[in-house]
From TrEMBL, chain A:
The keyword Oxidoreductase applies. This is SDR family NAD(P)-dependent oxidoreductase. It comes from Aliiroseovarius salicola. Pfam families: adh_short. Keywords: Oxidoreductase. SUPFAM superfamilies: NAD(P)-binding Rossmann-fold domains. Belongs to the short-chain dehydrogenases/reductases (SDR) family. InterPro entries: NAD(P)-bd_dom_sf, SDR_fam. The keyword Secreted does not apply.
From TrEMBL, chain B:
This is FAD-binding oxidoreductase. Residues 13-179 form the FAD-binding PCMH-type domain. Keywords: FAD, Flavoprotein. The keyword Hydrolase does not apply. It comes from Aliiroseovarius salicola. Pfam families: FAD_binding_4.
Length: 256, 436
């Protein structure tokens, strides 16, 4: 019936996935996907009550899951996660789904919102990944999935603060990939287009909207095939190729 | 950020609505939304207008779909109300538990199953869905209220079959029943006519029993069909076929008289005169139509009605009279079901009564509307009742007369929802929130 109708995992693998920002529907779908394939999943985020529900749900399906606190703006929450995974044998992976997108007009009114946006979408997750990188290097394996956004490919009037934070994160991921590759690790940068989530529920003018399950499947395939940068659904690569190549003297007058 | 205007329909696609819809993903968000008003809706498998709120707000529960507690010793499971009953069967049958009551579609949400107090093919043995609910958590204007068969009893009864009028159904604890495996042993036999059909249903000792009826057969063959009996079993699982879907509206002739008569005759002869036994997957037995996604499109753009009534055992003759009218009208579709029900029901507005229930689909045409109006009158005369999960055409007076506890229910609903912010197109059409 539905894609998420996964039953008991066929096998228990020695993979662990840390899911940062696990309350979002995209993260939930990805967590269900990797857990159904046997991975142990650490659901990390701010809303512990919600994370406990997701963990209980996965355990009732015979999967392995725990909830753990993560707040991108509070680095004190980072070490306990690193400590927890250090106790677990096998390959440690992480998928970053955090980020925040205040409306651009709210930022125009209160520029201090920029700090939080950058903390949530870039600085916080990057600081966490700096702590995780030595673990991956020590074990000689492990994949980091970083969810960016097509908004990071070019600054636009509608959300350029969010876009610039995601662009910074994408550049960080590219550097981290360069670092981890030489130690047997890998980094996948994911740029989703329009996805049917709570964040986009009332956004007007959306087209070709993908389900969270579809995006989760695409990410999972990219991890298995060790892709570097993926757009999901795939055609966003071409949409963004065009958008990136519009000359700036034209682009600056457009409102897309 | 929370609401957007969408167009949506009931499963029969005749009745439509346009209104502001929210789709929360977290309990806290759901609680906040209930302060803004609007009934909860699930996968909208009710055929008529039970899940519509035209020009008003509604809360789509389908992303509130997690299991939030499970005890493998007792088979008690607590869920967010947007999870589907089919998913529960999928998850737990391999672990030895199955929801005690499974309706005809696995896509129904648990919230919807409660709001309609649905029944399954084992109703005569096991009762209705609400009779296996141990606890329900409602959200009334932001406030969580728990009702159980022992605590807040009146509210509990008003919620089972209460078409969502006592609060947003947020969570529920269900008592599942043990099952030996995840296949069904199914026996099918032909019933040559009405009398034979009824006597096979009466004599059945199986846990699950239902009759498929050829609602186009007339004369001596009136009421012919196939009686299907089944037990849960352990065994080798036949391979699942992947679901198909109806990608677009079918033309109007797709289910026209000759096509349906031909299909029905073939379907009837599929089972040999000596009967047939087989092993089926749980899904294939309980949710045969779910394999064809969006099968409601087979009726074309104009949509369809499903008529379902129940009459007391003593009125079996009246029901035969109704089938005679249906067969004579030549409007029926292949989807017709006859079943003997027990007396199990969990709430004031629950559909079941001990007797026989008949369900027939009709394409949405004027002739069908006239016929359904006539069948409603005949049902009322036979002291029967109509099913709110299916109804799209009845009048309020008729429904209130069929549900003698309606007044008590309406009083509790008003206490739970004094602003009447949970009203739907159905409650307004039938005036159900008014006692008069």
């Amino acid at each position: 019936m539905k894609d998420n109708m996964t039953n008991l995992p066929d096998t228990v693998t020695d993979e662990t996935w840390i899911i940062l920002g696990a309350t979002s529907s995209m993260a939930r779908a990805f967590a269900r996907k990797v857990a159904s394939e046997g991975a142990f999943v650490l659901l990390a985020g701010r809303d512990m009550e919600d994370l406990e529900r997701s963990a209980t749900d996965m355990r009732a399906r015979g999967q392995h899951a725990e909830a753990i606190k993560f707040d991108a703006r509070n680095p004190k929450t980072f070490d306990p996660i690193i400590d927890r995974v250090s106790e677990v044998v096998g390959v440690i992976n992480a998928a970053v789904f955090v980020g925040s997108m205040p409306p651009q007009d709210a930022i125009d009114e209160d520029p201090s919102l920029i700090d939080g946006t950058v903390m949530d979408s870039y600085a916080g997750p990057a600081r966490f990944l700096q702590k995780l990188a030595p673990v991956i290097e020590a074990r000689g394996a492990g994949t980091v999935v970083g969810v960016g956004s097509v908004a990071g490919d070019r600054g636009r009037i509608g959300n350029y603060v969010y876009g610039s934070a995601k662009a910074g994160f994408a550049t960080y991921l590219s550097g981290l990939r360069n670092r981890l590759t030489r130690a047997g690790g890998h980094v996948v940068t994911v740029k989703p287009g329009f996805v049917d989530t709570a964040m986009t529920w009332d956004v007007e003018g959306m087209f070709l909207v993908a389900t969270p399950e579809k995006v989760a499947g695409d990410i999972s395939n990219a991890v298995k095939k060790k892709k570097n940068v993926i757009y999901t659904p795939f055609f966003w690569r071409y949409i963004m190729l065009i958008i990136r190549h519009i000359p700036e003297f034209i682009f600056k007058k457009m409102s897309i | 950020m929370s609401w957007k205007i969408i167009d949506y329909t009931g499963w029969g696609r005749v009745l439509r609505a346009s209104g502001a819809m929210a789709r929360p993903e977290r309990a806290r968000k759901l609680a906040d939304l209930t302060k803004e008003g609007g009934p909860a809706v699930g996968n909208r498998r009710s055929y008529g207008d039970a899940s519509l709120n035209n020009d008003g707000r509604a809360i789509d529960m389908t992303r509130m779909n997690r299991i939030i507690g499970f005890d493998a010793e007792t088979g008690q499971v607590t869920v967010e109300a947007g999870i589907t009953i089919g998913e529960l069967a999928h998850i737990f049958a391999p672990q030895g538990w199955i929801p005690a009551v499974l309706p005809g579609t696995g896509f129904a949400t648990v919230g919807g199953c409660i709001a309609q107090d649905v029944h399954g093919k084992n109703h005569h043995n096991t009762g209705s869905f609400g009779q296996h609910v141990l606890s329900v958590t409602l959200i009334q204007n932001g406030k969580r209220v728990v009702a159980t068969p022992k605590k807040n009893v009146a509210l509990f009864r008003a919620t089972m079959g209460g078409i969502g009028q006592t609060g947003v159904i947020a969570e529920a604890t269900l008592q599942m029943k043990p099952c030996p495996g995840d296949v069904m042993m199914v026996t099918e036999q032909r019933a040559e006519n009405w009398e034979r059909h009824i006597s096979l249903l009466d004599a059945s000792t199986a846990e699950y029993c239902v009759g498929w009826i050829d609602a186009t057969a007339q004369g001596a063959a009136l009421g012919r069909g196939i009686v299907e009996e089944a037990e849960l079993a352990k065994g080798l699982l036949p391979k699942a076929k992947s679901p198909r879907s109806v990608p677009r509206d079918a033309p109007n002739w797709a289910l026209s008289g000759p096509v349906v008569r031909g299909f029905n005759a073939t379907y009837y002869r599929r089972v040999p005169t000596s009967g047939k036994s087989s092993v089926k997957r749980i899904d294939d037995f309980f949710f045969p139509l779910d394999k064809i996604h969006d099968w409601n499109r087979l009726y074309g753009k104009r949509g369809f009605y499903q008529f379902q009534n129940v009459v007391p055992l003593s009125e079996v003759g009246a029901l035969k009279g109704m089938l005679d009218r249906i067969a004579g009208a030549g409007l029926a579709s292949p989807l017709a079901v006859l079943k003997r029900m027990g007396d199990g029901r969990a709430g004031h507005m629950s559909f079941p009564m001990e007797g026989y229930t008949l369900a027939v689909d009709f394409p949405a045409r004027d002739a069908a509307r006239d016929l359904i109006a006539e069948l409603e009158k005949m049902t009322a005369q036979a002291n029967g009742r109509l099913y709110l999960a299916k109804d799209a055409l009845a009048t309020g007076d008729a429904i209130k007369a069929m549900y003698p506890e309606h007044g008590d229910w309406a009083a509790i609903a008003d206490k739970s929802d004094p602003e009447r912010s949970l009203e739907t197109d159905m409650t307004r059409r039938l005036g159900l929130r008014n006692t008069g």
